């Protein structure tokens, strides 16, 4: 399964090949902090509990002609959503570290720098 690091996503968002960023977190979390231009489909709790049908009901909102980057809080539940999207034919990746990773990247935190080094090594 594919993943994309926050710095890679940031570069893609500034390019001509901008991906569709699908944020699956609950709406209140999304409203508090989200990646600019992302789209919220609040299916996090359903997918976490094993109900993939909630995401399938929103497939018409997800473009089939763009790369998809799936975002959740830490990236764990997004991996499940990414897997489902891939099985449906989407070119989907999970944002490594989720919004926690993105926020750390934006702030240049030491925690992000350590995780980024580990992502590159693994």
UniProtKB/TrEMBL annotation:
All residue ranges annotated as the Rhodanese domain in the record: 15-111
Domain of life of the organism in this record? Archaea
State the InterPro entries in the record. GlpE_sulfurtransferase (IPR050229), Rhodanese-like_dom (IPR001763), Rhodanese-like_dom_sf (IPR036873)
Q: Which SMART domains does this entry report, sorted A to Z?
A: RHOD (SM00450)
PROSITE patterns named in the record: RHODANESE_3
PANTHER family linked? FAD-DEPENDENT OXIDOREDUCTASE, OXIDOREDUCTASE
The scientific name of the source species is Haloferax marinum
| Protein name (database record) | Rhodanese-like domain-containing protein
